[in-house]
Design goal:
The chain is mainly α. It is built from 5 helices and no strands.
Length: 141
């Protein structure tokens, strides 16, 4: 795309959209949203980057190897957080039951492991959305 104005406006707006997506991921356990919604926002900001600047530049910024690693480690992070409960003698994904400090209600760290689980799921969702977009664009051409 050769539109100068669109590229300049997106260069200013897209980082804020991405930051907002991470905000939704991090605050999902104390406000509306969560890891899935935040991951979608982050993924769509990356898709908008690919749409405005072209697939070649997007592939240079996010190669397939990086996306595969992010997807794998996002899933692995979720499993590791779930195993914390099992290692402490509680069910999978146990939080307070496993003895994890859940903090003060209404604060960022009030959910115990939920914040850490949300980060893994949000990153996984974002990378999956971008991978699906790249696959669909490649199939089209």
């Amino acid at each position: 795309m050769k539109d100068f104005i669109l590229k300049r406006i997106s260069a200013v707006i897209l980082p804020f959209i991405c930051i907002y997506g991470f905000y939704v991921i991090l605050h999902g356990h104390i406000s509306p949203g969560g890891s899935f919604a935040g991951g979608i926002i982050v993924g769509l900001s990356l898709i908008a980057f690919a749409t405005v600047y072209g697939m070649e530049k997007a592939r240079a910024e996010l190669p397939e190897k990086v996306l595969v690693l992010i997807e794998s480690y996002g899933t692995l992070w979720y499993v590791i957080m779930g195993l914390v409960g099992i290692f402490k003698g509680a069910p999978f994904l146990a939080n307070k039951l496993a003895g994890v400090n859940v903090g003060e209600p209404g604060t960022l760290f009030s959910g115990g492991l939920i914040l850490l689980i949300s980060v893994g799921v949000g990153i996984r969702v974002a990378s999956t959305i971008v991978t699906l977009f790249f696959a669909l664009v490649e199939d089209e051409s």
